[in-house]
Amino acid sequence: MTKLFIADLHLSENRPDLTDAFIRFLETEARAAEELYILGDLFEFWIGDDEQSPLQQQVTLALRALAEHGCLLFYSHGNRDFMIGKRFAQECQMTLLPPIYSCELAGEKALLLHGDLLCTEDEAYQRFRRITSWPWLRWLFLHLPLSRRVKIAQQIRQGSRQGKQQKSLRIMDVTPQSVVACFEQHQATLMIHGHTHRPKIHDVELHLRIKARRIVLGDWDTHLWYLKIDGQQIDLLSRPITTPE
C-alpha cells in the first residue's frame, strides 16, 4: 500500500505556479497512492470555510476528484490554516486528524503532526498558538465579515514575516528535548512532520538506546517535496517546480 505525505505548500493567489504543481501532483503521483496525508499549511492562510475563493474552489474540486478516484485523504492543521473546518473537509471528502496522530507505518508505530508543537523554544509563537486555540476566539473571528477577516490575516502574515527576521534559526527549529519527549510519550519510533522547511531524515536516540527516525517534509517553493511509504520502503522525494508550457 502506497502512502504519500506532504506539507507546507502555502498555496495563495500570489503563487499560481504552486497551485498548478499541486494539481498536477494530485493527478499523477497521488493517483497511484492509496492514501494522501497533508500535514498542515496547505494554504498560506485560511479565514474560514465560507470564503469560497476561486483558489479554494479549485483545490476543493481537485481533492474531491482524487478522493472519488479511491485515494483516502487526511489532513492535519498547520499554523497557517488552523481554521480549516468540517465543512471544507467534507467538501473535499477528507478526514481531519488530531494535532498528534498515531498510526502504523512501515511496521513501526508512527506519529503524524504539523511540527509547530515541537518548537517549544519559540515562546512567543507558542503563546500565540495557545491564544488562537481558544474556541470562543475562533467563533468570534469566524463571525466577522469576510473583508475584516482578510485584513486581520494580512496583518498576522506581515507580523509573522517581521518576527521571523528577528528570531534565530535555532529557535525556529524543533527542540530536541521536545522531540524525545513526544516519541516517548506515545511510545513511537517514527515521526513525520513539516513546519520547519528543513527536509531531512534524522536519526534520534531515545532512552534505553532505542533508535527512532524523524522525517521532516520540505516546503513547496522552488521544489515540491513528498514522502512516499510503500510497505517497508521510505523515500523522501523532490523535484523542481516548473511552469507548464
| CATH class category | Alpha Beta
Order of helices and strands: EHEHEHEEEHHHHHEEEEE
Biggest sheet overview: 6 strands, mixed
Strands of the widest sheet, in order across it, are 4-3-2-1-10-11
Mean pLDDT: 90
What class, by secondary structure content? alpha/beta
CATH architecture: 4-Layer Sandwich
CATH fold label: Purple Acid Phosphatase, chain A, domain 2
Q: Could you give the count of β-strands?
A: 11
Uncertain spans:
none
User: What does the radius of gyration come to?
Assistant: 18 Å
Give the % helix.
25-40%
Tertiary shape: globular
Topology:
Blueprint: E1 2-6, H1 16-27, E2 35-38, H2 54-69, E3 72-75, H3 86-92, E4 94-96, E5 101-105, E6 108-112, H4 123-132, H5 135-142, H6 146-166, H7 169-172, H8 176-186, E7 190-193, E8 200-205, E9 211-216, E10 223-230, E11 233-240
Parallel strand pairs: 1-2, 2-3, 3-4, 6-7, 7-9
Antiparallel strand pairs: 1-10, 5-6, 8-9, 10-11
In short:
The chain is an alpha/beta fold and 245 residues long.
Task: Please tell me about this protein's structure.
This protein is an alpha/beta fold. The protein has one domain: Metallo-dependent phosphatases (Purple Acid Phosphatase, chain A, domain 2), CATH 3.60.21. It is 36% helix and 24% strand. It has eight helices and eleven strands. The strands form two sheets. Strands 4-3-2-1-10-11 form a six-stranded mixed β-sheet. Strands 5-6-7-9-8 form a five-stranded mixed β-sheet, covered by helices on one side. The longest helix is centred in the middle third of the chain and has 21 residues. The protein is globular, with a radius of gyration of 18 Å. The two termini are 34 Å apart. The model has no long low-confidence stretch (mean pLDDT 90).
